[in-house]
Design a protein that fits this description.
The chain is built from 1 helix and 11 strands, in the order βββββββββαββ. Strands 2, 4, 5, 6, 9, 10 and 11 form a 7-stranded mixed sheet that branches. The longest helix has 4 residues. It starts with a strand and ends with a strand.
Length: 128
């Protein structure tokens, strides 16, 4: 079992930055593909970005490409999401997710069903 805990959310003005962190316990994350999703009020959960188990490959959805950066530190068992140039529409609960192994298929990266473990989420609120 892997337990994931997100932190770093909060209230920020539009144009500002936040750095989210996802800490894992129970297992080392070095063999897990990691991803970030978010869910805004009244909307479905949305895929944002994924990173391969060694960090050599990343993928971003268009809405965050160029503004968000995913990274991982396997030695510290953490994954981070650096969010810059935040917009009002980035307001949501942000979740990290983990999948043991799996192929790096762009089509499958964004599927919630691909991930075995989820954190409880952290709220990000961007004021306009």
């Amino acid at each position: 079992q892997v337990q994931l805990v997100e932190s770093g959310g909060g209230l920020v003005q539009a144009g500002g930055s936040l750095r989210l962190s996802c800490a894992a316990s129970g297992r080392t994350l070095s063999s897990y593909r990691m991803a970030w999703f978010r869910q805004a009020p009244g909307k479905e959960r949305e895929f944002l970005t994924a990173i391969s188990w060694r960090g050599g490959s990343t993928y971003y959805t268009d809405s965050v490409k160029g503004r968000f950066t995913i990274s991982r530190d396997n030695a510290k068992n953490t994954v981070a999401l650096q969010m810059n140039s935040l917009k009002f529409e980035d307001t949501a609960v942000y979740y990290c997710a983990a999948r043991l192994g799996g192929s790096w298929s762009i089509h499958r990266l964004s599927l919630e069903s691909e991930y075995d473990y989820w954190g409880q989420g952290t709220q990000v609120t961007v004021s306009s």
